[in-house]
Request: fold
Amino acid sequence: MNTDIVIIGGGHAAAQLCASLVEAGLGRQVHLVCAEDPLPYQRPPLSKAFLKNPAEGLQAHRADAWYDTAGITVHRADAAVAIDRAARHVTLQSGAVLAYGQLVLATGTRARRLPQLPDKLANVAVLRNAADALHLRPRLAEAKSLTVLGGGFIGLEVAATARALGAAVQVLEVAPRLLGRSVSAELAAHVLATHRAAGIEVVLGAQLSDFEHDGQRLLALTVNGQRQAVDLMLLGIGAEPEVGLAQACGLTCGQGVMSGVVVDAAMRSSDPSILAIGDVTQFPVSPLWAPEGTQMRLESVQNANDQARTAALTLQGQHPVYAALPWFWSEQGAMRLQMAGLMPAPDSAGAIAATTRHRRSGATEASFSILHYVGERLLCVESVNAPMDHVMSRKLMEAGRHPSPALACDPAVALKSLL
Amino acid sequence: MPDITLIEADGTEHGFEAPDGVSVMQAATGFGVPGILADCGGQASCGTCHVFVDPAWADRLPPPEPHERLVLETTAVPATPTSRLSCQIRLSPALQGLVLRLPDRQV
Reply:
């Protein structure tokens, strides 16, 4: 029986899975198939330090020599193009065919683009991987102005970076608020005020039309009836899971916005020989963090790392249950946002549980946390420049503690003391 | 290209030549030194790349920024006056011979 483990993907999930399998002594059975040329690297800096400083290099998770020593066979710049489940092999772009005992899909997402624009306009960028960042960096350094389409994490992180570089920055968001998918309305309002105070123009409820290009560059668009020229544009309008390979070989995938590869709590897909991890998965959220039966796709480093650790156990024949507390963060200029837990999502009937919110003040106006409760249950804590609140909130939630809002928001009470 | 040494809590020593310009965290994880998690990728956000700087070196590093100090209050093993986040120590020839000790856990 073939015991080889083939991992398709080159992001955080794939890198962590390699590390976990090497720790388990299985490195020599691992083939890592990367569509990109660089070895797996840290993605969070791409919208911040890497973009700001032309001397900044990619940060590989593990050096070349580590893969060699570990016995991992790395296939670089050689995308997987087909999975044959009956024959149990993967075909790569180069024509190489890799047989597998177990296969792991860590294919992540791709940046969404605007259907009305050609993909290759020189002054329209997305930011998902190193090639995107290398494309954007010199253009951003030269740009007088940047138009960011989309008020999500990537868009706002790049907006803050561009502002720090001295560009005039405009953020266009079609929704009535920023960060609609990821944080509470209260936190979004603070983020909005902070960016505006830093001189970033933010247009909410933006109506966009009449994109004009010459096949090479985007020239202009109309925003709320006003015609404006475009110097450089970043599309930060979300990501779509890379499910092409999975769909083509008949694995069960979700529908619509939840279109990830469906996995169980052990990260197994509908084919027990194939696992999936990271941004591409649609997974059952532990009833600890969301109502029973909630399925979700999460784009975060935490989810990638912890699903990889879970998958490593499954690949060794164990029966783990993925139940890690979801947490994520974003750095936007001087704002460090850290979120622990999940805000309530609509249930199958479309209803959203009513939450109460409570503010825990920090040492300065720019440092605080917002605690969200459903009834007496602490569900989600959003921290701004308050890393201690974030870490302690995670520990409280992981320990199943639900301190009363009055206690948890008393600045004289250390959250640590409530554990 | 300074030679640096990381010592695990159990005494295991890892010595290697590290590239200039990258962080200690990046160099150490790149070489597969166990005991540094660095979940946040070097953004001084997660507090899982905590190291203790050897006393002989403590005064020879630039001091931590205010945010790093805040995160150092959150580490799994309590920080000491010589604690640093290894993602915030940039390697340079001046750090030839740097010695760092690792806590026994990061989470």
Summary: Residues 45 and 59 of chain B are 24 Å apart (CA to CA). DSSP finds two helices and five strands in chain B.
